[in-house]
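Any chance you could type out some protein's one-letter sequence along with its backbone structure tokens so I can compare the two?
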Amino acid sequence: MSLNNKMTLLVASLNNIKENHLNIKCSYDDDIETILIRKKNLGDVGSDLFEKFCELGCEATKLKLTSFKSVEDEEIKFLVEKISTLLVEIYPWLNNYLPNYPFMFIYIDEYESVGIDACEVRSGFQFMLDLFKGINPKLDDILQKLDEAATEDFDKKIKFGKEWNKFEVEKEDIPEFIPKHHIWWSK
């Protein structure tokens, strides 16, 4: 699938969040079933979004693109601007999802371990930070805030899984064109 197609799918995911998930709030008055349904929906929507960022990032890496800041293709420029605008618009959702992901969706116990999903979300997050940096100042501010709020806890949780031999990603599970600096994929 081409870079344009991957970006178009990403726009659709971002629009879905903007239109259907941006203002969903949990209340202390909610029953446990409602809370669990909202958590599952949040996890599904977030995993889908960051899986798309991961796929986009792998395609960009394949094309030797490390940033979308200086792309010249007009259609790509349009899509980069659209994605940038949507990222700014859904910042409250991102700021809720990313810092909470390690605590809500990465379980390490005798039955659960760190797996492909966590690494995909982490790589998607990193690709979002790297590829969209320098597009516009407002987005740069948001990316910096998200980086500060989520990266350290995310990486600690994955490292903890590795230290406790609860890391279940095999070499053949690693997507093609994952950059070497995405160290969370390796044991």
Summary: The chain has a mean pLDDT of 88. The longest helix spans residues 32-62. Residues 103 and 119 are 14 Å apart (CA to CA). Residues 3-185 form one domain.
